[in-house]
Each structure stands twice: as C-alpha cells, then as structure tokens.
Design goal:
Epox_hydrolase-like, Rossmann fold, epoxide hydrolase activity, globular, 9 strands
Length: about 400
C-alpha cells in the first residue's frame, strides 16, 4: 500500500517498532452478523418509545431497530477496513513493570528534521478512529517531506489492537502514562507534546506532570471539582455557566455507566461481551448523547465493530475505578498541576465543560478558545476546528518561548 513516505519511522527509532496491518478474519465478521440477526430487541415500552424523539430515559427503540438492521445487512466492514489501512499502522513491544505490552498505533511520520512529535490520545468509548479525520486532512495538506509534525495515535492498553491489561495485577492511568512515554522513547523522540480528551486527557495530564520529555499539552476535556477559591469560582461567564448546568444534568442523569464500570467492571464486561446488540446499546447511546451533531452511522458502527471483533469491551474498562466509586483517587487540580504550557479547547456539548478560570488553576494556560459547535468527541466531530487550535497553541509556544522546535 502506498503511504507516500509517511510510514517511515525516524532513523533512530527502535527495532521494537514493527509495521502492522488491520485484518479481521471473515469468520469473525460472519459470526457478528449471525449474532445480530439472531438477537431480539426489547419490546416497546414507555421508556423506549417516548413521543417527539425524546430519549432522556435512554436509547429509543426506533433507533435501535434501524441501526441493528443497517449493521447486519448494509454495513460494509471491508470498506471501512480498507480506509483504516490507508494509514500506516505499527505495533511497539514495550516492557514495563506492569507487564509486557504490544501497543498498537497509527502514525504519520515526517521527514523534516525539526518535525514536532505529537501524541494524540483517545478515551472511552473512543479509539484511534477518532483521529483519522485529522490525519486524513493533514496528509492532504502536506507531503512527508513538508509535514511539520510526527503524528502518533496509540491505542490505549486494553483497547482494540493493543494488549489487554495483565490478569495478575491492576493497571492505572499512571501506568498507561509511563507506557506511552516509553513509546515515544522507542520512536527516538527526546521531546514531544500531547493532545488528548476524555481518558486520553487524564493520562495526558499525568504524562505532562510526571515525565520531563513531554514539553506541553493541549486538552479538550478537563474534568475537575470546583476550585476552593471563591474568587475563581465567581469568574464564570454565561456560556460557561450553561455548560456547568449541562454537566450537572449529566452527573445526575448520565453518569451511571461510569459508576458501573468502576464498581462492577467484571459484571458489565460479561454483559458487553455477550452480544453485539448489548454493546451497541451501551456505546451507541454515548455517541448520540455526548455529541453536538450525531456522527454518521458508519462512524459509530466502525467504532463499535472494532470493540466487538477485538474483544475489548471488557478489557477497556480498567481506568474507571481510579476515578469513580469508593476507592477512587482524587482527580482534582492539585495532583496533576502542570508546570508546562497548557492549551485548552472548550466545546459546548462536552459532558465536562469546565470554565476557563478553573482550567487556569491547573497549569500554565497559554491558550484557551471557546467554540460554538462540538461535543465530547471533538477530534471526530470538529477535526478542522480542533486542529486549528492545536496549531495556534504551537504558534504561541514558538512565539512566547522561542521554541524553534519542541
């Protein structure tokens, strides 16, 4: 497959980095379709048939009926797989105290000597698919000889094509942060920056706080409790207050999934791994509720298909007990304060849309922009706007800190 030079890692990259390609066995696709056809849906109820397309009590049955029908009869996995493989894929063998991992990642490597390495980190229920629109846009805009960046999109441990967490010990976001820092070293990068949202943003904060080679971070989510300072809490504009009210609604009406992941991951893991319709309901709801405009159905289904065929519905839940439930660690501002340049993009339909004044308490905020469109999956929903923010953030780094390259 012609990658036009984007598939060549830096000259000093480790031999532990190997090219790779996605290929799901046909039997797995056939079994998926068979299960879809055999699985009944819940009968009509008051809760799943509310008038005027209201879905505040959960997924609507009419959406499930139509989506299941399309998934089992019209969705073309091989077409999606061909597009996925139009980007260079790799796996990296990483040894870590938690265990040995094969970390999958997609990358566009530049041939420019001063190209800036950027690690793009996803969350749940996302995956590397979230960032392909940005990569697609940049490979149209640049050649491998002119691309100003190395773009690396890893799959988190336990997600899609990366190794699952070990069976004999717990894994935390701190461990994932360390593993990704090792990945950048294997690629030969002595410094890099991060862009992340959701769990990728949490892990990114830990990387930025604890690993010196990370020089800056740009986020599009920032879950945190309200700062204690009354002055900071009062510096909220009308748009930000509306966002906090949406978050309050989410906290009381939409966060039960996270508490389930945190307190009963084994149980819900069995449920989500038992049947693709169960997975569709659990994950599809998030793509509908957490976005500004509903993504194309194929984009939703390619993500859910990847979770199903890679058996990662259960192995991707490990992070939640660190942040939710009785044993959760604090994820406030103090532990992950970032003494490095911090950029932040605010999207109105984000489920944790924190005000600027709050973000400023967590690090050296040098870039902040509010958008009028977009939600939780910003890289997927608003790739041009998000990437414009990243480039403006990089411009500030060069101007303010005289950084010719990171």
């Amino acid at each position: 497959m012609g990658f036009h030079g984007y598939n060549v890692p830096p000259p000093n990259a480790s031999d532990a980095i190997k090219p790779w390609e996605v290929h799901i066995p046909q039997k797995d696709i056939d079994d998926l379709v068979a299960l879809l056809k055999l699985t009944p849906l819940a009968p009509p109820t008051y809760e799943n048939a509310l008038p005027e397309q209201d879905g505040y009590l959960g997924l609507r049955r009419d959406w499930m009926v139509e989506t299941k029908r399309y998934w089992e009869s019209s969705f073309n996995w091989r077409e999606q797989e061909k597009y996925i493989n139009s980007f260079p894929h790799f796996k990296a063998s990483i040894q870590d105290p938690v265990g040995d991992f094969e970390i999958h990642f997609v990358a566009l490597f530049s041939k420019k000597a001063d190209a800036i390495p950027i690690l793009l980190l996803h969350g749940w229920p996302g995956c590397f698919i979230e960032f392909l629109s940005i990569l697609d846009m940049l490979r149209e805009r640049y050649t491998a000889e002119t691309l100003p960046y190395h773009l690396i999109v890893p799959s988190l441990p336990g997600y899609t094509f990366s190794s699952p967490p070990p069976l004999d010990r717990n894994i935390t976001s701190d461990d994932a942060a360390r593993i990704f820092d090792k990945l950048t070293s294997l690629l030969g990068f002595e410094s890099y920056i991060i862009q992340g949202g959701d769990l990728g943003g949490r892990i990114g904060r830990i990387i930025a706080a604890n690993h010196p080679n990370c020089k800056a971070i740009h986020l599009n989510t920032g879950p945190m409790p309200p700062p204690e300072e009354a002055e900071v809490r009062s510096q909220i504009n009308k748009t930000e207050e509306e966002g906090l009210q949406r978050h309050l609604f989410f906290k009381h009406n939409g966060s039960a999934y996270a508490w389930t992941h945190a307190t009963r991951p084994s149980t819900i893991g069995f449920v989500l791994s038992s049947n693709p319709v169960a997975l569709l309901a659990w994950v599809g709801e998030k793509f509908l509720d957490w976005t500004d405009d509903t993504p194309p159905l194929d984009l939703i289904l390619v993500s859910i298909t990847l979770y199903w065929v890679t058996h990662s519905a259960a192995s991707s839940l490990w992070s939640y007990r660190q942040f939710y439930g009785p044993d959760a660690e604090s994820h406030g501002t103090k532990r992950w304060h970032i003494n490095k340049p911090l950029g932040f993009s605010w999207f109105p339909k984000e489920i944790t849309p924190v005000p600027r004044a709050w973000v400023e308490t967590t690090g050296d905020l040098v870039f902040y922009r509010q958008h009028k469109k977009g939600g939780h999956f910003a890289a997927m929903e608003q790739p041009e706007a998000l990437w414009a923010d990243v480039e403006d953030f990089l411009g500030i780094l060069k101007d303010r800190f005289a950084m010719r390259s990171i």
